[in-house]
Every structure is written in C-alpha cells, then in structure tokens.
Automatic annotation (TrEMBL):
One of the record's GO molecular function terms: GTP binding
Pfam hit, one: GTP_EFTU_D2
Record keywords: Elongation factor, GTP-binding, Nucleotide-binding, Protein biosynthesis
SUPFAM superfamilies: P-loop containing nucleoside triphosphate hydrolases (SSF52540), Translation proteins (SSF50447)
Domain Translation elongation factor EFTu-like stretches: 201-266
Organism: Heterocephalus glaber
InterPro entries found in the cross-reference section: EFTu-like_2 (IPR004161), P-loop_NTPase (IPR027417), T_Tr_GTP-bd_dom (IPR000795), TRAFAC_GTPase_members (IPR050100), Transl_B-barrel_sf (IPR009000)
PANTHER family named among the record's database cross-references: TRANSLATION FACTOR
Protein name per its UniProtKB record: Elongation factor 1-alpha 1
Domain Tr-type G: 5-46, 72-174
C-alpha cells in the first residue's frame, strides 16, 4: 500500500450482527486486498463448520487487521463518536437483501428517516451524511451500482469543499475529507505495542499523532525517559523516509530492550519538546 494514497482512519460503529465484518471483508476482497483462492478456502472452511456466511468476515482475520469495535448500540456509538470529534459520517443501510420483500425501498426510507431524526438531535447535519443501501453479503452497491435496487439513485452530501453525489459505498469512502496533519507540532507517538523481531531487534509500533518521525532521529520515550536513535521506519512492510500524523508504523530502535518501553509510552523528538512525566 505504501504512500501512494492518503491514509484515512475509519471507525465502524454498529449494533450486534449488523454484518459489519462481512461488509468490510467483502469490500477488501472486491478492492483486491485478498485473492479469490483465499476466499474460496474461507468459503469451504466456513461451510464445513456450518458457518457459510462467515467467509468474508474471516478476511479480517487473514489480514490480521480485525478492527477494534465498540460494544453497545448504534445510537450510543453515534453520540460518542460525534462527542469525540468524528464529524464525517457514512451510513451503510445493510442487509437490504433480507428485507421483506427483498431490497425494499420502503424499509430503506424508514431507516433513513429514523437515523436522520436521531443524528439531528446529537448535532449532526443530515445534509453532510451519505446514506448507501447495501448488502455486505451479496456486494450490492459496494463497488458498483446494483441492479437489485433500481430505485436507489445514489447519495448526495454537502461539505466545506462543496457538494458531492455518487452511488456506492466505496465512492462514499473516497469522498471523506482527509484531516489536516499537525506536522508543525512536536512529535507525539503513543505506543500500541513493542515487539522483538529476530535479526532486527526492538520494534515499537503505534500511530503518529503529531509531528514527523524519520530514520536517524533521536527519540525519547515518556514517562520512562529512555532515549534512543530510530534506525528505520516501516508501514505495511514498506520502508518510509518519514511518517506523518495518522500513519500507523513500526520503527526499529537502537540499544533498547522490549523491557525498557511498553504500551502507553509516548515517543517524542529529543531535540524538540519531548513528552515529560506529569505528577
């Protein structure tokens, strides 16, 4: 994947059994993130276990990229996300193939009306929200406009960059406005984990929140006050010349043991206001 496209962090909020794993897995498959042979393998294994509908959901396990989902209900999630600063919203009205009758326009419109009423209450402008009628299992309106819902003419949103109108879930994702990168601020990189890799050494991993991380930089981890040099930086198994805010990276460091730093420590540039222990 490398750096050819802007990286966007997406939060999936849903109620239990809404089909989010199947939808995400099917989207990854259709975008070429996993091959047909692997999908066929999942389909066979799932059928043998009596879980034939799990073949796309297992894509996330194969990629070791299972998202961290929040527990609870969709309304609570929407309120929490908006309160925490998530202002761009896409609503995938899933399982349209399971309505009565299948692909019911009436049921879709009922859901859109109900969700619009709620998001208004929490402060979200419905005009900025893309509603997409989809089937995560069958792939309707994920990459291509589905013939099963001729009544669905697509979605239209208003944003600070103007108006946008498309038809599919992928197009809705592509219309997300990337956040501004606070590269001018001091480096802050909270550690998600720390690994010891044979032949390489200690590799902390985490997401750059502010600033820039580069090979050759001297960083200090707070609050343990461990200082070391960054030997290399990688994302998706590709070496980077620099990592920017929003990038989830691993970086190899010199003369540091996995016991010296841990999850929750914050890496900062030793020469530019590194993090400090607060009492």
């Amino acid at each position: 994947m490398g750096k050819e496209k802007t990286h966007i962090n997406i939060l999936v909020i849903r109620h239990v059994d809404s089909g989010e794993s199947t939808t995400t897995g099917h989207l990854i498959y259709k975008c070429g993130g996993i091959d047909k042979r692997t999908i066929e393998k999942f389909e066979k294994e799932a059928a043998e276990m009596g879980k034939g509908s799990f073949k796309y959901a297992w894509v996330l396990d194969e990629l070791k990229a299972k998202p961290r989902y929040l527990a609870g209900q969709t309304r609570e999630h929407a309120l929490l996300a908006y309160t925490l600063g998530v202002k761009q919203l896409i609503v995938g009205v899933n399982k349209m193939d399971s309505t009565e009758p299948p692909y019911s326009q009436k049921r879709y419109e009922e859901i859109v009306k109900e969700v619009n009423t709620y998001i208004k209450k929490i402060g979200c402008n419905p005009d900025t929200v893309a509603f997409v009628a989809i089937s995560g299992w069958n792939g309707d309106n994920i990459l291509e406009l589905s013939a099963n819902m001729p009544w669905f003419k697509g979605w239209k949103v208003t944003s600070k960059d103007g108006n946008a109108s498309r038809t599919t879930l992928l197009e809705a994702l592509e219309c997300i406005l990337p956040p501004t990168h606070p590269t001018d601020k001091p480096l802050r990189l909270p550690l998600q984990d720390v690994y010891k890799i044979g032949g390489i050494g200690t590799v902390p991993v985490g997401r750059v929140e502010t600033g820039v991380l580069k090979p050759g930089m001297v960083v200090t981890f707070a609050p343990v006050n461990v200082t070391t040099e960054v030997k290399s930086v990688e994302m998706h198994h590709e070496a980077l010349s620099e990592a920017l805010p929003g990038d989830n990276v691993g970086f190899n460091v010199k003369n540091v043991s996995v016991k010296d730093v841990c999850h929750g420590n914050v890496a900062g540039d030793s020469k530019n206001d590194p993090g400090k222990h607060c009492l």
